[in-house]
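Trying the structure run again after the queue cleared.
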Amino acid sequence: MPRHLDLAIWPRRETFEFFRKFDKPYFNVSTQLDVTNLVAMRGRPQFTAFLAYHYLALRVANEMESFRYRLHSGQVIIHDVIHGASTILLPNETIAFAYFDYHENFDAFAVEAGRIINEVRSGDGAFNPRDDQDAVIHFTTLPWISFTSFSHARNWGREDSVPKIAFGKFVNENGRVRLPVSVEVHHALMDGLHVGRFLTKLEEAMLKPAAYLE
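Done. Tokens:
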């Protein structure tokens, strides 16, 4: 069950109060991560790079309390576990959303998430966003673009504090494979330090994927 963060003793209380009143309280960091060892695992049962980097991003996010913070009526709640929500390209070139649970075991995650994504792709194409759920990370993938910056659509009328992560097109450079990654978060809930730690841990996992996926 979610629990409330005690704002009275939170060292970031003043920072929280300052940024939560902004019209645009979000900041975005875009970078490229080394995924050479991750893509080298292609051919492994249940493995696709798409499922693997979503799994690793969710795993790292679940290990970091700040990525489980959400705003609720001026307070901060902490979810015990957060899951995945990703845009999926349909055969008719529209998008739909797939919602999949986080499992610590990669094979369990890959089987369930893969099944859900396939169901969405082969379904009726209904556009059914779940606006009432925030125990998620919002993902999107642009496999056609090696982007260097990114910006997400936002509804200014809602207390939206869900982190948003975008993945881009693989880049081959000097014998290494790199993946553009964008992380967008609510500044009232975390700072550049937290995003930096997230990206560092994510790249460490991608450089030693067997330790996480096997």
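The mean pLDDT is 94. Worth checking whether this holds up in the mutant runs.
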